[in-house]
Amino acid sequence: MYLTDIYIYPIKSLGGIRLNESVLEERGLKYDRRWMLVDKNGIFLTQRTLHQMALIQVELMAGGLNVFRKDDPETNILIPFEPKTKKLIPVAVWDDTVIGQLVDNSVSKWFTNQLNIDCDLVVMPESTQRKLNPKYAVNNESVSFADGMPYLLIGQASLDDLNTKLQNPVPMDRFRPNLVFSGGKAFEEDEWDKVKIGKSLFKITKPCARCVMTTIDQKTGIKGKEPLKTLAKYRTVSNKVMFGQNMSLLEGLTIRLGDTVSPQ
User: Fold this and answer.
1) PANTHER family, per this entry (predicted)?
2) Which residues pair with 127 in a beta bridge?
């Protein structure tokens, strides 16, 4: 088994970026979900309610993030890695309220115009510690603005198995993984406790419960019923539909495509 895809999603709920290699950090892959859009109450925004967020793509540049519309790439804005303001505000991600740093008023205005909702872009400062649920933490880890865990792993065989049951196969981007591996059997990752990828070691913490976001076409922003409807028929555990495995980093600095993947 070997690593075939590495993805980061720098701004939560916007388009992801495929990488050839990445730096591993406690909170997740470098740049992954370090930025987040929030409404004027500081509540996080996602595709679950704003399907049009799927139409905004992020590109990693030398000096920051280039953000543009998939249907009109010239409608874009460059966001420097360093925020232009010093303003800190409380922001909410699910049950967690942490401190985010406002990036720039002009950036907020751009997103407000694109999404037709009054919003701000915040970045997670290093001083913000969003601790994992102790039930799943290994070393009292912090996590980014991700839904809950630093890393998400999915086997390509698991998606292939699902697609044999669908009238219209779906791509992996519906599930927004960080790491995808090839080889092995469908849902083999469900059985693992730890996994070594290249020279790095990860702890499998819990299955990933899926939501309506998997039903949004990432190219069009249009919501349907699949693949959640079909997944629910054979991947439901305790009223939750499971697909993929969440992980924490135990040791390691980098990963790259082609790294061997071996359960420990």
Assistant:
1) MITOCHONDRIAL AMIDOXIME REDUCING COMPONENT 1 (PTHR14237:SF19), MOLYBDOPTERIN COFACTOR SULFURASE MOSC (PTHR14237)
2) none
Place of tokens 């399907």: 51
**Could you read off the pLDDT of 133-143 as tens digits, one per residue?**
999 999 999 99
Count CB-CB contacts under 10 A for residue 226.
Answer: 17
Name the class of domain 2-9+17-26+132-263: mainly beta
Whether this model's pTM surpasses 0.85 = yes
pLDDT, tens digit, for every residue of 80-130? Answer: 999 999 999 999 999 999 999 999 999 999 999 999 999 999 999 999 999
Tokens linked to 108: 């907020």
pLDDT digits (tens, 9 = 90+) for 38-60: 999 999 999 999 999 999 999 99
Structure tokens at 261: 């993947």
Q: How big is the CA angle at 246 (ends 240 and 250), to the nearest 5 degrees?
A: 155
Instruction: Give, rounded to a whole angstrom, the gap between the first and last alpha carbons of the chain.
Output: 13
The secondary structure of the chain as a DSSP string is: -EEEEEEE-SBTTS--EEESEEEEETTEETTTT-EEEEETTSBB--TTT-GGGGGEEEEE-SSEEEEEETTEEEEEEEEESS-S---EEEEEETTEEEEEEE--HHHHHHHHHHHTS-EEEEE--TT---BPPTTT-SS--B--SSSS-SEEEEEHHHHHHHHTT-SS---GGGT--SEEEESS-TTGGGG-SEEEETTEEEEEEEEEEP-GGGGB-TTT--B-STTHHHHHHHSEETTEEEEEEEEEEEE-SEEETT-BEEE-
Q: Is 4 exposed, middle or buried (0-12, 13-18, 19+ CB in 10 A)?
A: middle
Cis peptide before 207 (omega within 30 of 0): no
